Amino acid sequence: MLRYILRRLLQAIPVFFGTTFLLYFMVFSMPGDPILAMFGDRTPNEALYNQLVAQYNLDQPFVVQYLLYMKDLFTGNLGVTFSGRSVNEVFADAFPVTLMLVTMAVIFEFILAAGLGLISGLRAGKFSDQLNLVVALVLNSIPAFVAMFFAQYFIALGLGWAPVTVGANATWSTMWLPALTIALTLYVVGMRLMRGSVIEARSADYVRTAYAKGLTSKRVVPVHVARNSLIPVVTNTAASFGALIAGTTVTEGIFNIPGIGKVLYDAIIGGEGPTIVSFVTILTIMYIIVNILVDLLYAVLDPRIRYV
Amino acid sequence: MKINKKILGGVAALSAASLVLAGCSSEEEPESTASGSDTPAESSSDAIILANGSEPQNPLVPGNTNETGGGKIIDSIFAGLVYYDGEGAAHNEIAADIVVEDPQNLTVTLQDGWAFTDGEAITANSFVDAWNYTANLDNAFYNSYFFEDIEGFSWDEPVEAMSGLTVVDDLTFTIALNKPAADFAQRLGYSAFYPLPTAFYDDPEAFGENPIGNGPYMLAGEGAWQHDVQIELVTNPDYAGPRAPQNGGLTFTFYATQDAAYADLLANNVDVIDGIPDSALAVYQDELGDRAVNQAAAIFQSFTIPERLEHFSGEEGQLRRQALSLSINRQEITDVIFEGTRTPASDFTSPVVDGWSDSLEGADVLGYDPERAAELWAEADAINPWTGTFQLAYNADGGHQAWVDATVNSIRNTLSIEAEGYPYATFAELREDVSTDVIESAFRTGWQADYPGLYNFLGPLYATNAGSNDGDYSSADFDALLEEGISNGDAAARNELLQEAQEVLLQDLPAIPLWYSNVNGGFSENVSNVVFDWHSVPLYYEITKN
Amino acid sequence: MSDKNPHYVAPHEELDEVQIDQVKLSDRKSTLWLDAWRDLRRRPLFYVALAIVILITLMALFPTWFTDVMPRDAELAKSNMPPEPGHPLGFTRQGEDIWSRIVYGASTSLSVGLITVAITAVLGIPMGAIAGFFGGWVDSLLSRIGDIFFSLPYFLAAVVVMTVLSDYRNVWVISLAIGGFAWATLARIVRAEVLQVKQQEYVQASTSLGRSRMSTLINHVLPNSITPAIAYLTLALGAAIVAEATLSFLGIGLPNTIMSWGNDISQASITVRTAPMPLIYPSLALIITVLAFTILGELVRDALDPKARARR
């Protein structure tokens, strides 16, 4: 087990380099001139423009920019944003907030996916299964920007059940509404995966054996059916965890949550190479760790999977 | 120019580096904003006003702040030689007197007794040193261009001290310009001209985080600026100038979207906001009643067709530009798409500046006249038949799609040609193609004034080789009238000449004027005396809490 | 002795087995597909879903059968107006006919959905299956490549693809931008399932019987681990159509001259508070399409799966 974890961590090194390189390349090939954009409709004087371009190393060729960046990275310096703040600091401010939001969203998503998926799987083909599917698909077909907007207007502003915006008070209790809304627009995939595995598990030999032994479904369903069906759901939930960390821009915008989504979005739009790469690099590392944890979880959920 | 980064506009239309200029002035309908001035001030003078803002793009240094997020903080914590009132008129703040000797020379005397919040007295050097630092190419400050008219300024080499600035004594200095700029005194209220204490030069970085100012407000101590969240300001007890705060302080909450700010306003969680999201434009005046603000602003919107495009040069180009202008139903678009929050343009400036006119000769080219448009287009076709599609480029991160689509539809319907919007994903991308002259279509342009004067809408945009002359327009007639105008010391005569210059523009249409943006905002039930100034920002110091 | 030998068991002809073993040539053949078809024929929902899918496909192929109005005819004076004769669903904010835009948008939205799903499947299923089945360094390599794609922000990737190829903004490019980075999720799902299936006795039996590893994977492991993948893909179809809306919303979607439900949804979302209908109609079109495809996919999958059929 320990050897397995070590091996995975070693493999993380090329992933790390691959991701940063690919990222830097993508950012580099993004069209648009970030310096010009800082001046709005006013075109800056050429001398001033060149000065700023040099200040951000934007005049260097791609490989040089990348190496300069990596050099800084290994000294623990993630660089500074165009606004002059250290990326380390920006990240340290924004990350805990996003982590809280996404963790909550993913927990909601998992509960909805596993719970409703189990019901659907046990009642496959019945009315409740079909209703489940229709409701989930309708929710899934609503673009995030529309869903967030409705949640804010009707639940927060209309009913007053949640704060309208989050702002400086980013806590578990102020962010449940955006988290739940994210979960509602997402859970359908996990639910269908759960349903599929439950259907399969119900006809698996070990479940028949369990019934044959005289166990009641009260015991068989949670222990044998549900547990063994969770693998695809866990994979999917872990996937959405990663995707959400970088993808809560719309949610953070509407609920004014000072997290990573907004900072990353601004950096992408503004063409701030080092900021984008630094953020995504840290996210990649976290991602790798989450993936290792998920793979270990497989072994817990399915005793037949063993790691050496 | 303050760039308003209307982030995530629309129903979260993800937009960051957009240039949706939100602006305002109180020249029209001031009664719509000022309400309840009879509120007793004593009872609530220490209350904190909650306002919307956005994370400053740069450290809080006046010479390096060129967007509204940082701008409204800078304007609250600093005081300059002059300040602009709600109407855009300049009044002395620190200056005792500004004497314009001739269009190229000014003498400034300061009032005695002004100091920064760290106790340092404000002298002529507080200004001259700050200006020299901002103008120095080595420091690459965004606002350095404000000093390019001062004698000794250079874009070619770093200049430590501009020869045009001379300190006469502690409270007097003179300004010599390298070319006539009769409106220079009017420009001095812009934040680039604010003074800096010596503490700034010791550690500019630390200063930018915890600026030491001299304005009506100051930061509420270390860490008052919570990045990406909010900044807290309290009144400066030593401030004795004309902008005396009627409240106890300001907290600017940084919103990522106007939608979020508006939702908070409806819930009375924020007291005053200076932008309304597109999704609420149709309803905000009903929802807020007399707490809604919709007034003209110093913002001009247009689109530009570069001279070098096929079919758009020479006489053919002039005819086509006029035909396009006449085929746009500006009134209908401002009514339907903008819900009356834009005003169709009648010149190249803004109704909030002195000298604006709706009766320039040739301004009828800005009306909607489908027959005339078709005629002119046919005349142009006679010179060289039209081919291809008319495209209008815009940046998709700024909420421009709706009006662009409506505009090209209006052109399609009138001229029976294929016309479409061409979205660029980011503002950065659009600006790159525009400034490198590779763009192969018409593109949207806009301008928010740095200071309330006609010249600012014309000189930087249409003078031959001017910095922001995106369409590479060049007209000897226009240049001559512009030069004559800006050299004239008499304001009325100056404006008349600048209006004549615009009549040349109305013939050539280097940019096709569309409309003036209004400032759209609102305030909560908890505050009164909310007045928006000429450049789209509420006069925060006047607001009182009920 | 030969004739007279007594029968210790009943004569063959008298045994029940005869009846059981008998092949009645008159009976219809029982194959996987036939069984599935017989099963589907009995399900009314199948016909409903099939009818919708056919209808939408026809719309996509022959829009003029459904409307005479051109989708780009705009009259601003009719902005957000209610239905009138000839315009059954009313008008958009720009004064275009909503029904006509839905009809003409079908082709784009359907293509984006199907092409994206195809790209995702072609990349994701083999990557996940090979990684999970062969394990070892192959797994490590493929999984780590997946990790790289996984950790790239989707929005950044889409911006880059759509802007670098901005002169070719069409359904193929937008599908590539969506599917080209979504396959990693599918690969992980397939890999997880394969990891589980390969432990099953029938897989081990197949290898011990001497089948090649590749053949075992294709013939035994893959068919038995495909269920979650199909579930994922049917949903990905809808997600792709929604993603196209989001990209349009961000200004990196299809140009306005190409009609698509996504474009219309993102445009109409701005006025949702005052004029919800221009948002609701294209959304309904999208939801109905997604529902029809998903239900069809589910029914076909259930019908093809003998285990699921047995339970009904």
Topology:
The complex is a heterotrimer of chains A (308), B (546) and C (312).
Chain A: H1 2-29, H2 34-37, H3 46-55, H4 62-74, H5 87-122, H6 127-140, H7 144-158, H8 176-202, H9 205-212, H10 217-246, H11 249-254, H12 260-269, H13 273-301
Helix pairs in contact in A: 1-13, 5-6, 5-8, 5-10, 6-8, 7-8, 8-10, 9-10, 10-13, 12-13
Chain B: H1 9-12, E1 48-53, H2 68-77, E2 82-84, E3 90-92, E4 95-102, E5 105-110, H3 124-135, E6 165-169, E7 172-176, H4 184-187, H5 198-202, H6 204-209, E8 217-219, E9 225-226, E10 230-235, E11 249-254, H7 258-266, E12 272-273, H8 284-288, E13 292-304, H9 314-326, H10 330-336, E14 342-344, H11 370-383, E15 390-395, H12 401-415, E16 419-424, H13 427-435, E17 442-448, H14 454-462, H15 476-486, H16 491-508, E18 511-523, E19 527-528, E20 544-545
Parallel strand pairs in B: 1-11, 15-16, 15-17
Antiparallel strand pairs in B: 2-3, 4-5, 5-7, 6-7, 8-10, 9-10, 10-11, 12-18, 13-17, 13-18, 14-18, 19-20
Helix pairs in contact in B: 9-11, 14-15, 15-16
Chain C: H1 16-21, H2 32-41, H3 44-61, H4 98-134, H5 136-151, H6 154-164, H7 171-179, H8 183-197, H9 201-208, H10 213-225, H11 227-249, H12 261-268, H13 277-304, H14 306-310
Structural summary, described in words:
The complex is a heterotrimer of chains A (308), B (546) and C (312). Helices cover 75% and strands 0% of the residues of chain A. With 308 residues, chain A is an all-alpha fold. In chain A, helix 5 (87-122) runs antiparallel to helix 6 (127-140), helix 8 packs across helix 10 (217-246) and helix 12 crosses helix 13. Chain A is globular. The model of chain A has no long low-confidence stretch (mean pLDDT 82). Chain B has helices at 9-12, 68-77, 124-135, 184-187, 198-202, 204-209, 258-266, 284-288, 314-326, 330-336, 370-383, 401-415, 427-435, 454-462, 476-486, 491-508, and strands at residues 48-53, 82-84, 90-92, 95-102, 105-110, 165-169, 172-176, 217-219, 225-226, 230-235, 249-254, 272-273, 292-304, 342-344, 390-395, 419-424, 442-448, 511-523, 527-528, 544-545. Chain B is α+β, with helices and mostly antiparallel strands. In chain B, 62% of the residues are buried. Chain B is 28% helix and 20% strand. In chain B, the strands form 5 sheets. In chain B, strands 12, 13, 14, 15, 16, 17 and 18 form a 7-stranded mixed β-sheet that branches. In chain B, strands 1, 8, 9, 10 and 11 form a 5-stranded mixed β-sheet that branches. A 4-stranded antiparallel β-sheet of chain B has the order 4-5-7-6, covered by helices on one side. Chain B has 16 helices and 20 strands. Chain B folds into 2 domains: 17-265 and 520-545, D-Maltodextrin-Binding Protein, domain 2 (3-Layer(aba) Sandwich); 297-518, Dipeptide-binding Protein, Domain 3 (Dipeptide-binding Protein, domain 3). Chain C is 66% helix and 0% strand. Chain C has one domain (52-67, 98-311): MetI-like fold (Orthogonal Bundle). At the A-C interface, helix 1, helix 6, helix 7, helix 8 and helix 10 of A face helix 5, helix 6, helix 8, helix 11 and helix 13 of C.
